[in-house]
Amino acid sequence: MSLHSAGKGKLLAVIGDEDTCVGFLLGGVGEINKNRQPNFMVVDKNTAVGEIEDTFKRFIKRDDIDIILINQNVAEMIRHVIDSHTQPVPSVLEIPSKDHPYDASKDSILRRARGMFNPEDIH
């Protein structure tokens, strides 16, 4: 069984290092759409930031993707693009990688949520 959104046929997309992508692909999330575009991108030290940005922008425009998982260290490389994505779907979840632990202070969604619920900001 692949990790699609229940009943909708929506996908999970992954942008991350090889270990992260391989793990999710082994879990069954890999798909290639009718235009032969995969729902994942492997990022390594030679991947251009522009290529990551283009893939992220392409993923947020696809109507078959509900969730984008991205390694937090990769998200840091395109932070301005992620911060400009304010739609609830697809949701962007920042996840740790093998070599880079998760840092909640860098997570765009968590910062935005904290601002919504922080009593000092509600004046």
Low-pLDDT regions: 1-7
- The CA-CA distance between the termini, in Å, is 48 Å
Strand residues, percent: 15-25%
Strand arrangement, largest sheet? 2-1-3-4
Largest sheet: 4 strands, parallel
Instruction: Give the helix proportion (percent range).
Output: 25-40%
Query: Which class do the helix and strand fractions yield?
Result: alpha/beta
The CATH architecture would be: 3-Layer(aba) Sandwich
CATH class: Alpha Beta
Residue-averaged pLDDT: 85
CATH topology, anyone?
Rossmann fold
Rg from alpha-carbon coordinates: 15 Å
Number of helical stretches of at least 4 residues = 5
Shape label: globular
Order of helices and strands: EHEHEHHEH
The CATH superfamily turns out to be ATPase, V1 complex, subunit F
In total, how many beta strands?
A: 4
Number of domains: 1
